[in-house]
Amino acid sequence: MVLRVLLGGFLALFIAVANAGQPHQYKLGPLEIDSPWSRATPGEAPNGVIYATIRNSGTEPDRLTGVESPAAEQTQIHDMEVQGDVSSMWLIGELDVPAGQTVTLAPDHAHIMLVGLKKPLEVGQTFPLTLTFEKAGSVTVEVTVEPAGAMAPGEGS
Amino acid sequence: MKRGLLLGAMVVAAAILVTSVALLLLEWRARETHQTSVAAIGGPFSLTDQDGKKVTDADYAGQWKLVFFGFTSCPEVCPTTLSRISLTLKALGPLGDKLHPLFITIDPERDTPEALKSYTAAFDKRITGLTGTPAEIEAVAKAYRAFYQKVPQGDDYTMDHSTLIYVMRPDGQFETILRYDDTPAEMAEKLKPLLEQG
Is B109 near chain A, with CB under 8 Å? Predict the structure, then answer.
């Protein structure tokens, strides 16, 4: 039991240290946006995705209400699921960021979709994304493009 | 007494006959169901490949195939699937050359042969993209029992679709399925003994 608590403590410390070392971290009031990343688009694929983690360390819930990027004609918030071996995706428009919680935009979860890319996204490239929250306001972050099909940021090519 | 014995023998004979017929019927039915379940996935198709050439299932006879469905406007599940397949091919080493992944679009309105070619090439040149007329796509999806559906989204649309990857034998028969969330290592492990068969 004691060992488990100790291990948990070490793990938390390790994660904190690892996070502190990450370059792409943005603060907006009680919100922290970590490692916004995207995937290179294969060929002339017209659409792209953006993932990130949003942590709300405050006591008030907030909500992501707007996303905008010059990289595409439209930027939307989507959710998806693979159920019964069928994948589906739909527009949610807004995303709740509950107090004291971390919301993860990641492969096989909710994501920001770039509809109608102006140019294909290439590995290593960065582009801006503006996130607008109901309470905390707006912040512009730099999104790093990882290889097509990457499952996490910094996987390398 | 004699008549009693004869009657008894006849009853026994009848019972044996009925049981044998029932057993034969059961076995025949079991064999038939097995055959249908195998024959029901896959079958003949007529499509257009990523070079604009008309193709049928016969063009891929004699090869182990991975048949799966998707579309190039899909930013999430399809790149993940193609990436996992390209990593599986790499994990298989030279055996990977015996496997022909066929990516069939369920969005033939938008997916031209050229769009498919540049899409698949971004992952692995051994993957071939296939498109067709809406009727041809409907027929091949039906043959593989793959679900797809157009979902309107604003002025645009997206596609819901099956994520299963069908492993097809060189003789065109269905072998097994791989799932969307199988890792490349798991896929390679399942495929290796099959590809080693020849």
Answer: no
